[in-house]
Structures are given as C-alpha cells and as structure tokens.
Amino acid sequence: MTSIVLGQGRDGSDTCIDLPELLATRLLVQGNSGSGKSHLLRRLLEQTATLVQQVMIDPEGDFVTLADHYGHLVIDVEDQSEASLRAAGERVRAHRASVVLNLEQVEAEMQLRAAGAFLNGMFEAPRAHWYPVLVVVDEAQLFAPVAGGDTSDEARRLSLGAMTNLMCRGRKRGLAGVIATQRLAKLAKNVAAEASNFLMGRTFLDIDMARAADLLGMERRAAESFRDLARGQFMALGPALSRRPKLVTIGPVTTASHATGPVLVPLEPVSAEDLRDIILEPVHEFTPRARRESRPPPPDLLAQLDAYGAEREAEEPAPAAVVVEADPDQLWSLVAEVVAGEGSDYKPLATLYQDFQLRARIQGLSRNVLELGPFHRMLATIRAGLDRERSESGDWKQAQAIAATLPEDVQGVFLLLARTALDGETCPGDEALARAYGTHSLGRARRQLNYLEEREVIVLQETPLGRRVAIVGLGWQTA
C-alpha cells in the first residue's frame, strides 16, 4: 500500500491517505473561505508529486509555485484557444506531464470554457494513454454550479459536462477527481455524489452543515461541530482515509502561494489637509480627438462581382436569353479545388460553400449554380477518395442514399468508410476519421463509429489486427 501522511489525528498519530484507493474512489473537500482548503490541497499535491501525474485546475493562480519545486508545467490560458486547450489536454496525458492550468487572468466565462475544453481533451485521450492522473479542481462550485449565474448557458454546460465526466466516468480512464468547494449547496449534486472520500472543514451555514453531516453519516445534531473546527482541521471519512469520521489537522507544506492573507499594518500619521491634497488632486482631462467620418464597409467580393455584372447588363443591350447548363465536370473540378485548399478539412461548411461560389462567379457561372445540399454531398464524395466517373456508379448512389438519412456532420465519415469498404481497403485510422469529421480530437472522431453502429448503418468489429467495418445493406467490408 502506497500511503502519504496527510496530517495528525486528535491523539497526535499520523493520519495517512491510501493513494491507490484515492485514485479509485475520488475525494471531496468542503470548507468555508479561510478553513484551510488550499493548504490541504497543497499538502496533498506536494506529498504525491513524485508518485503520480498531477493536473491542477487553478482559478486564482494559487498553485503556480509548484512549478519552482516540482517542475509542473504552468499553462496560462489567456492566449490559448479552446481548440488548443483541448489538444493540450490530450497531449498532457500522452506525455504524462504534471500541469497547473492557471485561470487567474481571464474572466469567469473564459474560465469555464478553458477548464471544460482542457478536461474534455484529457477525457478523450486514446486508451493507450490512460495512465493514472490526480485531477485537482479548486473552487469546484464555479465549474459545476447547481444553477446558472452570470455566465452563458453554453459555457456552463461545457464546464459542467466536463466535471461530470471527470467524477462519474473518469475512473476507468485513470482520472481521479479531487474537488474542493466553499459551499456544498452550490455544487452540482451529481458531481459531489460520486466522491467516496470526504474532508469537511469549518462550516457555518446550516444547509451546508446538514449536507456535510449527511455525507459523513453523522447525526444532524452533531453537524454543529463543524463550526468549532479550527483552520486546517478537517473531519475525514472514506475508504482511502478512515472507516469512521476522524479529526485530522493538516501537516505543513513546503511551497507557498503568491497571494498572502490579510496582515495588520499600522497606519502612518498623516494630517487631514495633506490627505485632502493627495486624494482630491485635480485630474487632467484630455480633449478627445475629433471622430473621423464613418464610411460604410466595402461590400464582399461576391457582392462586387454581382454589382459589376449588373452594371454591364445596364450598359449593353441584353442578348436573347440562353439557358446554359452547368458542366458537371467543371463543377466537380471547382469543388475539388475547394477540397484541396489549405486547412479545408477543418473549415465550416458555410465557409467552403462561399469559397465555391466565389470560384464559380470567377468562371462566369451563377453563384447558385450548385445548391448547398448537392455541394455537401459532392464535397464528401471527393474527400472520400472517389473520382468523377465512379461517383456516378449505381453502387455509390446507394451509399449516398444511406448517407442522406444521417446528420450532415457524420455523412463525410460514413462515405469515407463506404469508399474504403467498397475498395476492400483497411479501415481508416483515427486521424483520417477526424479529418472527415472536421475535428482535431481523435476521441470525438472515434465516437462517431459507435454512433453509426447505433444507427445500424455499419457493423464495427475490433480484431487483434485492427478495426474492421462492414456497410449494412451493401455487403461491403474493409480489409
């Protein structure tokens, strides 16, 4: 058994925490501000720094000092996008790096989005990288609130979903959640309920004391004892701590937070007249610059081409109307150029369609020569690896008919699988599936296989030699 000393019990004996048991059963820490939660988390992180990989979600920047003593990587999220944070979450697991995600410099909305993206990236890491990780989340009520606040519903759902995955489904993936909160009443119940170990600190509100007593299996009248706990004292219970509620005083730490608590400083004697001159010193107001005359923004390129065509028609007599059918080979070539563009795999469909419309207008075609639906199907067919001639075959028409019954975002994945099965090639790898789905997340792309199997359009088989896929109704199979 690998145990670490968390602190001392009432009789002065060491109180230990069983690390393997903690990784399997998770931990919830609760206590009002000033009860010593951050000190407890720092003690836990310091004692386990050399034993297990650690990830710290730090909303106040209190734990960045761990980098100086234990080599943690500090990630400041202010210059990072959600996509880069999600990718960083996957890479952290692959390289087994201990990380402090510093959210101090961003507002609440971005804190939720950043934490959600990073945790989802860790959760979606491939199975080969499911090493044990101690994931510590301070101020967990911010990331898993029981009700909405000042942030958007989208950000709250993203963060709450990530926290739920961490606490409810993270164990099999090696993710051991350690969450700390000031108030249990503000923490989502489905997140708090998954913890089997508890450390309850000083609490004053009746609703929080009652809930803490329920979690520890104590009688309601004994809940008032939480008011008498000193700073740094916690009631411990759980398979990794103690089978019965036990008082523990957290031991000392080596590192310290950059933030310091309030310290009494004597006031310097200054006369009221001097203070008046300092505080009420006139402020120099600068005359603002005259605003430039606002100009309307220039029209986009497609609008300019349309306007140019309208002017030419007004200047020249209109010839007899001639209906010109669009050349299918020309349309195929234009869509292929869009597919070959840099970064096209990850661009939204609307952006790619606008690119196609621009190319069509330059060729003298109408911008609506190909509607969005047919454009999307042709785009997915070209991405799947078919040429113009084979795309008109009866077999491929059947595959396209099946794809039309699926949501647009997974049609490209299905058509890629159908093409490889039609040619008897091996099943596409995770990266190819991710490109077809338009994401950088390999885990998200893999989940589309399960979705397609649930829709009964493919049969998925995992073999020792790799993944194998059969197309339902067509009889095609990958090698």
Keywords:
eleven-stranded mixed sheet; 2 domains; alpha/beta; globular; Rossmann fold; three-stranded antiparallel sheet; 479 residues; 19 helices
CATH level 1 class label of the largest domain = Alpha Beta
The total count of strands amounts to 14
Count of helical regions: 19
Structural class: alpha/beta
Q: How many angstroms separate the termini?
A: 47 Å
The largest pleated sheet is described as: 11 strands, mixed
Strand composition percent = 15-25%
> How many structural domains?
2
CATH homologous superfamily heading of the largest domain: P-loop containing nucleotide triphosphate hydrolases
Mean pLDDT: 82
Q: Which term fits the overall shape?
A: globular
Pfam family, one: DUF87
Keywords: ATP-binding, Nucleotide-binding
GO molecular function, one term: ATP binding
InterPro entries: ATPase_Atu1862_pred (IPR014588), HerA-like (IPR008571), HerA_central (IPR002789), P-loop_NTPase (IPR027417)
Q: Can you tell me about this structure?
A:
- The structure is a single chain.
- With 479 residues, the chain is of the alpha/beta class.
- The protein has two domains: 248 residues, 3-Layer(aba) Sandwich (Rossmann fold); 150 residues, no CATH class.
- It has 19 helices and 14 strands.
- The strands form two sheets. The protein has an eleven-stranded mixed β-sheet.
- About 1% of the residues have low confidence.
